[in-house]
Each structure stands twice: as structure tokens, then as C-alpha cells.
């Protein structure tokens, strides 16, 4: 339905060619803006509704002090959710509001866009099951490892006050635990968060749309192909500003590999594009400090670069 609306607006109303730079950029902006805003409302409302059944203190007891087990559980949960980097943010925000440790929440945020069922199917078809299994293992490793590192850094004070655990005004009306109260709490929670980030959502998607419409894939492929041993970090740097789901990035990684780019470099590009993006950074800006976002990106980039070099080394054995 959202795609049909974007098609109608761009092609029928504005009479733009959907494959032209301006048409592709505008279609991307309309489709992803509407999709992400709807997901934000729905997912935050659902999480808020579910939170009325479980006290925040109980959630904290489940995950606090469990070390890597908490990170692993969050990473596996992320692998089972079919979200892109931006679509997984509502659940991440819900975790923070519920008192889930920062590192554990980041394990989910990292793994959710990196691994999902349709990515596994696509990768098996393109790369075979051995490379797919190694990719899934590495994705979980990055999610668990980076989350553990971020948790050790004790950066909870870098969470903005509006995202810290606590009872919001909306929660007070839900304490009766009536069904209407639960639904109302979830909706008010969603509206409260959305009021603070909607402009950042649109700005982030707009940047992604411009890159999508005006930066050709051939330019990226050419840049990566001529960088030698530095191809892995350059692939990560090139992929980070972009925005896309694994389903759309897997074919690009295949083309890079078929053009002679090392496997680890191609997969590093795919990981960076899936797990990190400018729209994601803008969304997180209303919940986390710039220092924490930069630390999150840096730790993730280091993990992806290491995995890229490991794949490149194994592929020549």
C-alpha cells in the first residue's frame, strides 16, 4: 500500500520517471518516510502496551548482571526481527525506556539489520550455505562483541533524559491496567517520542534519498576496486552514509564480488550499509548524545573492518 502510494504520487501526480535521479530520490523519500513513521508509531505503541504488563524493574532484573548472556539474547532476538537499521530503532528506544542496559540494547540494534530470514535465503542463493553461515556467525559476533564493549564503557549518562527509564505522565494513566489504559499508554508513548524525532526522521531519509538517486553504484564499485589493501575500510566508509535493507544490498555485494572485489570487502560494504546509515544517526540524535552515537559507529566500524579482513584472508586459503 505504501509503495502504491509512492508510485501514484511520483508517477501519476508529479509525472516523474521513477528511474530518473529526481524520480528515484523522491520515490525513496516518500516510501521510506511513510514506512518509518508508521513503524515508529506501531512498534513504540506495541512496546508501550506490552510494558504495562511487565514492570520496568522486572525487565531490569532479567538482563542486568547477566554479562554476555544478555548481549547474546538481545543479538539473537535482533536476528529474528526483519528490520532495517531505522526500523529497529523503535524497539531500541523501548528497551532504553524499560531500563534495559545500554550495551544489551545496542546488541539488538546492531544485529537486527545485519541478520534476518530473507537475507539468509538470498545469501544462500547467491553465495552458498558455507559463506552464509559464516556471515551469520560474524553478524552475531559483531552484535554481541560491540554491545559488550559499549556496555563496558559506562556511557549511560550519554542517554538523553527523555529516553532514560522512568514513569512518564502517560504511565500514570495506565496504572489501572484496563485495556483502554494500556492502549492509551502505548499511543501516548509513541506520540511523545515521535514529536521529538519526526523532523530528524525526514531529514535523515532525505539525505538517504539524495544519495540513492544521485550517487551511482558504479562510482562506489570503481572506488572500492582501486584501493588495494585499504579496500575494506574504504568499503565500510563508502557504505556507511548509504541506507538500505540487506535485501537490497545483497545483489550489490554480489556484483562487487563478481567484479573481482575480495569477498570480505564486498561483505563489509553490505554490513556497513545495512547496520549503519545517516538516517539512523539522525534518528538516534534525539535519544543519545553525539558522543555516544559516534562511539557506537566507531566500535561497529572496527568490528566490520576486522570481519572483512578475516573473510578476505580465508578466501585466499
How would you describe what is shown here?
- It is a single chain.
- The protein has 317 residues and is mainly α.
- It has one domain (2-315).
- 75% of the residues lie in helices and 0% in strands.
- It has 16 helices and no strands.
- Helix 1 (2-13) packs antiparallel against helix 2.
- The model is unreliable at 167-174 (pLDDT under 50).
Helix-strand string: HHHHHHHHHHHHHHHH
Mean pLDDT: 77
Please indicate the count of domains: 1
Q: How is the main sheet built? A: none
Counting helices, strands and paired strands, the structural category is mainly alpha
Number of strands: 0
| Poorly predicted regions | 167-174
| Rg, Cα atoms, Å | 20 Å
In short:
This protein has helices spanning 2-13, 21-51, 56-63, 68-79, 89-97, 102-114, 117-127, 129-152, 169-173, 179-214, 217-225, 231-239, 246-258, 263-275, 278-284, 290-315.
List the helices and strands and how they pair.
Layout: H1 2-13, H2 21-51, H3 56-63, H4 68-79, H5 89-97, H6 102-114, H7 117-127, H8 129-152, H9 169-173, H10 179-214, H11 217-225, H12 231-239, H13 246-258, H14 263-275, H15 278-284, H16 290-315
Helix pairs in contact: 1-2, 2-5, 2-10, 4-6, 4-8, 5-6, 6-8, 7-8, 7-13, 8-16, 10-15, 11-12, 12-14, 12-16, 13-14, 14-16
Amino acid at each position: 500500500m505504501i509503495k502504491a502510494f509512492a508510485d501514484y504520487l511520483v508517477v501519476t501526480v508529479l509525472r516523474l520517471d521513477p528511474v530518473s535521479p529526481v524520480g528515484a530520490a523522491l520515490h525513496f523519500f516518500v516510501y521510506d518516510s511513510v514506512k518509518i513513521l508508521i513503524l515508529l508509531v506501531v512498534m513504540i505503541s506495541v512496546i508501550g502496551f506490552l510494558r504495562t504488563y511487565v514492570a520496568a524493574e522486572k525487565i531490569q532484573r532479567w538482563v542486568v548482571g547477566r554479562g554476555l548472556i544478555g548481549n547474546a539474547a538481545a543479538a539473537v532476538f535482533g536476528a529474528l526481527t526483519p528490520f532495517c537499521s531505522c526500523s529497529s530503532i523503535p524497539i531500541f528506544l523501548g528497551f532504553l525506556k524499560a531500563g534495559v542496559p545500554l550495551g544489551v540494547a545496542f546488541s539488538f540494534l546492531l544485529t537486527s539489520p545485519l541478520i534476518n530470514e530473507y537475507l539468509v535465503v538470498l545469501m544462500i542463493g547467491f553465495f552458498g550455505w558455507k559463506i552464509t553461515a559464516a556471515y551469520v556467525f560474524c553478524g552475531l559476533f559483531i552484535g554481541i562483541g560491540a554491545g559488550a564493549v559499549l556496555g563496558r564503557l559506562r556511557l549511560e549518562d550519554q542517554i538523553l533524559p527523555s529516553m532514560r527509564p522512568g514513569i512518564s505522565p502517560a504511565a500514570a494513566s495506565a496504572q489501572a491496567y484496563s485495556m483502554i489504559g494500556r492502549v492509551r499508554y502505548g499511543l501516548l508513548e509513541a506520540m511523545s517520542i515521535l514529536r521529538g524525532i519526526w523532523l530528524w526522521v525526514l531529514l535523515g531519509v532525505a539525505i538517504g534519498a539524495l544519495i540513492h538517486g544521485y550517487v551511482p553504484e558504479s562510482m562506489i564499485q570503481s572506488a572500492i576496486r582501486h584501493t588495494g589493501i585499504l579496500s575494506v575500510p574504504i568499503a565500510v566508509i563508502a557504505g556507511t552514509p548509504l541506507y538500505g535493507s540487506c535485501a537490497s544490498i545483497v545483489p550489490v555485494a554480489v556484483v562487487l564480488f563478481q567484479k573481482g572485489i575480495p569477498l570480505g570487502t564486498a561483505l563489509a560494504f553490505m554490513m556497513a550499509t545495512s547496520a549503519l546509515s545517516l538516517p539512523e544517526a539522525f534518528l538516534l540524535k534525539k535519544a543519545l548524545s553525539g558522543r555516544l552515537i559516534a562511539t557506537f559507529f566507531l566500535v561497529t566500524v572496527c568490528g566490520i573492518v576486522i570481519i572483512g579482513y578475516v573473510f578476505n584472508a580465508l578466501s585466499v586459503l
